[in-house]
Specification:
The protein has two domains: 9-75; 121-204, Immunoglobulins (Immunoglobulin-like). Helix content is 38%, strand content 23%. It has four helices and eight strands; from the N terminus they run ααααββββββββ. The chain has helices spanning 9-26, 34-76, 81-91, 97-103; strands spanning 121-126, 129-134, 141-148, 155-160, 165-167, 178-188, 191-193, 200-204. Strands 3, 4, 6, 7 and 8 form a five-stranded antiparallel sheet that branches. Strands 1-2-5 form a three-stranded antiparallel sheet, with no helix packed on it. Helix 1 runs antiparallel to helix 2 (34-76). The mean pLDDT is 92.
């Protein structure tokens, strides 16, 4: 025989509320005395109260979580008052490694992920060359590539481990300025890893 008591809490609350109302009407027809109906309704109300307590707790938790997120963003963001004060201590010249350890405010390096690593470079035009600056940020070095704007194929210029790299390649057509595009890819143990850098472009006139 199928159970007539709903398992879903919302459905159960609706079912119990209906039972609480209809027992007054049909209880006497089913042979229940007024005292028995009152006692039965008290049992129903206990379950309803327990369900309502769950709903109230859920709402309170949702409100508390929302408030925590707001307060955390305001107070613990990089520009928030707590981190600002700690950074001021660290920059003030009075901080010692011992104090950092005891206050547990020693910074930890971000985890390095070879799959998401993305090189970052800049390009500057100088007389006779283009200077590429970069930071390795956890890789052994960078493969640096170039192409003229409008081309689809990248040409590898070099593998470099120390910034900057100066591209002294002459103009493709002497006396004709050209737009060069550069990008770089991180290298670990001779293997390219991660994602190519954003493309940077410069107009080089020789």
């Amino acid at each position: 025989m199928a159970d007539f008591v709903p398992q879903d809490q919302d459905d159960l609350l609706q079912w119990l509320t209906n039972l609480l109302t209809t027992v007054d009407t049909h209880g006497p027809t089913l042979g229940e005395t007024a005292a028995e109906i009152t006692a039965f309704k008290a049992e129903i109300q206990l379950v309803i109260n327990a369900l309502l307590a769950i709903t109230a707790a859920r709402n309170a938790l949702a409100g508390a979580v929302s408030n925590f997120k707001t307060v955390k963003q305001a107070k613990l963001s990089k520009t928030g008052p707590i981190r600002t004060k700690i950074n001021k201590w660290k920059a003030g010249g009075l901080m010692t490694p011992t104090i950092e350890q005891e206050m547990d405010i020693v910074g930890t390096a971000d985890a390095f992920d070879e799959n998401t690593y993305k090189a970052a470079i800049t390009a500057e035009v100088h007389a006779g060359f283009v200077r590429i600056k970069f930071q390795k940020r956890g890789v052994d070095g960078l493969n640096i590539y170039v192409r003229l704007k409008g081309q689809t194929t990248w040409t590898k210029l070099t593998y470099d481990t120390n910034t900057p790299y100066d591209d002294h390649a002459p103009l493709a057509v002497a006396g004709t300025p050209e737009v060069r595009e550069y990008r770089a890819i991180g290298v670990i143990k001779d293997n390219e890893i991660g994602q190519p850098s954003d493309i940077v472009s410069v107009t080089f006139a020789g």
